[in-house]
């Protein structure tokens, strides 16, 4: 079965940066054939989509709240998805989770919707806390 493990969270001051990693493992997992996304859930709030990336270059999608500050990327050779977070704000404080879904092609160009239902495999999340 597919296993996803997030890392890189922590406590930072407003304006700081963090890079989150999501490592995929398991028999038959070849990340180049999977789309991926990051979601977050703040205390007392529902889970919201942050960013997604399909299998082809230029397929990134971002929520309006993070556009221009966050960058999603992938290293297929390492079976890892990243989320570079810059200019962090206190409202970015949340548990960040990654999800992946099988596309079966390296030519996926459509920017995927930030919908939890679109992703089949999930990690347990990593805490990001941004202080004022």
Note the main attributes of this structure:
mainly beta, 132 residues, seven-stranded mixed beta sheet, 48% strand, four-stranded antiparallel beta sheet, 11 strands
- Order of SSEs: EEEEEEEEEEE
Q: What is the CA-CA span between the terminal residues?
A: 40 Å
Helical content stands at under 10%
Report the β-strand fraction as a percent range.
over 45%
Shape: globular
Largest sheet: 7 strands, mixed
Q: Estimate the mean pLDDT confidence.
A: 95
Low-confidence stretches: none
Helix count from the secondary structure assignment: 0
Based on CA atoms alone, the radius of gyration comes out at 14 Å
Q: How many strands appear in the DSSP assignment?
A: 11
- Determine the structural class based on helices, strands and strand pairing: mainly beta
General description of the model:
By secondary structure, the chain is mainly beta. It contains no helices and eleven strands. The strands form two sheets. Strands 2, 4, 5, 6, 9, 10 and 11 form a seven-stranded mixed sheet that branches. A four-stranded antiparallel sheet has the order 1-3-8-7, with no helix packed on it.
């Amino acid at each position: 079965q597919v296993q996803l493990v997030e890392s890189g969270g922590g406590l930072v001051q407003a304006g700081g940066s963090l890079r989150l990693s999501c490592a995929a493992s398991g028999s038959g997992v070849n990340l180049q054939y999977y789309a991926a996304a990051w979601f977050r859930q703040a205390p007392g709030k529902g889970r919201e989509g942050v960013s997604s990336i399909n299998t082809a270059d230029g397929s990134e999608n971002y929520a309006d709240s993070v556009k221009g500050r966050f960058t999603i990327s992938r290293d297929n050779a390492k079976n890892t998805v990243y989320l570079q977070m810059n200019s962090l704000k206190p409202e970015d404080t949340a548990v960040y989770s990654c999800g992946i879904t099988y596309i079966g092609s390296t030519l996926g160009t459509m920017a995927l919707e930030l919908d939890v239902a679109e992703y089949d495999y999930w990690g347990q999340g990593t805490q990001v806390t941004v202080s004022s």
